[in-house]
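Lecture notes, unit on binding sites. The following record was shown on slide 14. It pairs a sequence with fe (iii) ion.
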Amino acid sequence: MRKLFKSPSQIISVSTSGKNYKSGNNMNDVGIIANHSVVVEDGIIKDIIPNSSINKSSYEKNIDLKDKIILPGLIECHTHTAYAGSRADEFRQRLQGKTYEDISKAGGGINTTVQAIRKLAFEELINLTKPRIEYFISQGITTLEIKSGYGLSYYDEIKILQTVDNLKNIYPIDIISTFLGAHTFPREYKNDHEKYIDIIVNEQLPYIRKNKLAIFCDAFCETTAFSPEQVDRIFSKASDLGYKLKLHSDQFNTIGGIDVGIKHKVKSIDHLEVVANEDIQKLSKTKIVCVLLPGVSFFLDYGFAPARKLIDSGAIVALSTDYNPGSSHIANLNLIMSIAALKMKMTIEETISAVTINAAKALDIHKKVGSIEIGKKADFAIFDTKEYADIVYNVGKNLNCMTVKSGNVIYNNE
Ligand code: NIG
Ligand code: FE
């Protein structure tokens, strides 16, 4: 089927001329094309043609985008969307002066959510997660990464990943699963960390891989979670089994996570709120995507990641919500773009590159999605405005009016 996405005010193509990521100053080039339309055939972008050459009768469907702008479908590359329970009580404690780390050292934090999820049946977790995915779709998100990491036992980690697998059959967007068994140590292994790592390495990783329940393996390298040596052991096994890797690192403390990430050629290192200058230099010499999560700094009220230093050093920077119940209870990617601009001094264009092509690279799908280029999947976010700056200028407001996945309109608020 041939479709025409006709006459938008602007096409924000985020084109990379075949490179499929943007670093340094190139993040400012969002590839604006005026007076053109996008031709889609069988779910793939076939052509971008001048409006003057349109022959309406050659298309089975014309989608009129007058006074609207079209962007690549947005990519949410770091979320913990399949969670259960509420941490409003811990939120209240933080407002009264306790820190996130205090709460986590006292056995709360991630482990509070673990207790909630272990009580839930598979179907209940599916029902809890559904509206969250629908909210992402309404924002123009066409690819969504979801991590496990709130089960922390063989059975419960698999339960979360099976839930995510089931949701892939319900929703038309691409959902990418990440195994995060190394999120923190569960209460029952508080005094025997090596035993829990044995379970990850000998039981969870092989089963999950064999049953194709996750593409990525992630770990949290932090004083309250896993040491660089422990991450090294988990990543060595995960690599051997064929997982792609990601890492949470330098959120509160610099303990050597960056070196382990570089050693294992991870696709992305996420957080980086306290990344050291020398590590910025190391990262900028790699193709590892630095996924920044300003919602965490905002929600936990502490310092933001040095986005400017990273970009100015030539690193590849992406943005994501990190949507989760404890450190970033924010599911609004538009708000994250505005926070990144206001608090991390990213330009409007940089925030756009960061939630499209660079977020795609963080998930290693940058050759297929993330920009409006011939041959890529016809994944689009269509915004009800004539000027792309409005997306970031309208703080927290959803201007997306249509979400298109593989050429099909999957959300339309008109
Ligand atoms: O990415 N840093 C570790 N994990 C999550 C927080 C999870 C939680 O607090 O529930 C994060 O911030
Ligand atoms: Fe996270």
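Take-home: The mean pLDDT is 98.
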